[in-house]
Recover the amino acids of this structure.
């Protein structure tokens, strides 16, 4: 019975996984999953899976073609009953872990696993079962070793009967798995999100960034044991904020991208030594900058100071009717052949899936 339940549960999980994968693009472009997060799981709505049932007994409603009415009467019921106000499709809320979600994302986008380049200067403890002990919790009992000891004892004492090979372990026969604790350097990553919050970046552009950041976080957390996230917003000046402020703030000033780059450099220099941390910078903007002179300054800072410190620098241009889009052209002119720089145009929510594949497809 327990085995059947386990099989049914595994089959249901595979069904859920298949439906999530099939509709992944729709989930990525809407906020319904992000708004239903738990500690390490996400609640998602999927179409209800109905299992057909056979019902036995007499049919109390008559046979085929029986009932009131004459031959030729309408059977469509037009004009009868009341209009409903509920959707016809029933949705089932089910939970899926962030680890499973990351696996689905990686499979669907064909993302390579990331190989960390650095080890943070703290250690994590890992237990490995390496030996056998005479004492231990029942859950770690080694069945084969226990019955081997029982057999040895019964053979030595002459109580073993080959014609009736029954082994009954006693307390001294029990053996348990034992473990050693090993300390290992811990792979760690830091993400710095940078977003232009000037007047040309509207609510829809920020929602696209919020959705994309969720999926980026989900994938990177599956590749690193420790992940720290920092948020930088800027118009003509830059400041570090918390996650909620990052996605809700809207300013009305101009745009000076170099102010954000200066703050990113300070965060890295003060907190994340490049030889110990895997550093990712994701910048989102509609492509406006205050002046060509500031753009030249940004390109120089990127080339000389930021790129030598990071695994990857990603620029996502979220298109706006008010933005010029020029900064993407400037980046392409200098860095299109640089493997540490990835650029992506994000015209609308439907482009989020391809943008993430652009950013994370190199496995850096």
């Amino acid at each position: 019975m327990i085995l059947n339940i386990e099989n049914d549960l595994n089959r249901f999980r595979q069904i859920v996984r298949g439906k999530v994968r099939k509709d992944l693009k729709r989930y990525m472009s809407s906020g319904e999953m992000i708004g239903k997060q738990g500690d390490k799981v996400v609640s998602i709505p999927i179409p209800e899976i109905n299992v057909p049932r056979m019902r036995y007994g007499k049919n109390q409603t008559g046979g085929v073609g029986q009932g009131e009415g004459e031959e030729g009467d309408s059977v469509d019921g037009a004009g009868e009953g009341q209009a409903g106000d509920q959707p016809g499709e029933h949705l089932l809320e089910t939970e899926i872990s962030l680890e499973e979600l990351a696996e689905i994302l990686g499979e669907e986008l064909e993302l390579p696993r990331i190989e960390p380049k650095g080890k943070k200067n703290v250690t994590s403890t890992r237990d490995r079962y390496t030996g056998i002990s005479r004492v231990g919790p029942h859950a770690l009992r080694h069945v084969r070793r226990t019955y081997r000891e029982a057999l040895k004892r019964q053979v030595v004492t002459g109580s073993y009967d080959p014609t009736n090979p029954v082994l009954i372990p006693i307390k001294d026969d029990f053996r348990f798995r034992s473990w050693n604790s090993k300390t290992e350097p811990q792979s760690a990553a830091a993400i710095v999100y940078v977003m232009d919050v000037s007047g040309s970046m509207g609510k829809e552009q920020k929602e696209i960034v919020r959705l994309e950041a969720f999926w980026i976080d989900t994938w990177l957390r599956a590749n690193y044991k420790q992940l720290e996230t920092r948020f930088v917003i800027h118009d003509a000046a830059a400041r570090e904020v918390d996650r909620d402020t990052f996605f809700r703030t809207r300013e009305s000033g101009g745009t000076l991208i170099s102010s954000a780059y200066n703050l990113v450099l300070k965060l890295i220099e003060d907190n994340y030594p490049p030889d110990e941390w895997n550093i990712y910078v994701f910048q989102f903007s509609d492509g406006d900058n205050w002046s060509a002179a500031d753009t030249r300054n940004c390109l120089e800072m990127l080339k000389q100071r930021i790129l030598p410190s990071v695994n990857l620098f990603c620029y996502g241009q979220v298109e706006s009717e008010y933005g010029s889009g020029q900064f993407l052209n400037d980046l392409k002119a200098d860095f299109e052949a640089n493997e540490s720089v990835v650029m992506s145009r994000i015209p609308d929510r439907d482009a989020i899936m391809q943008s993430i594949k652009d950013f994370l497809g190199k496995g850096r």
Notes: Confidence is low (pLDDT under 50) at residues 48-54. The longest strand covers residues 120-133. The chain has three domains: 1-49+91-110, 125-183, 187-360.
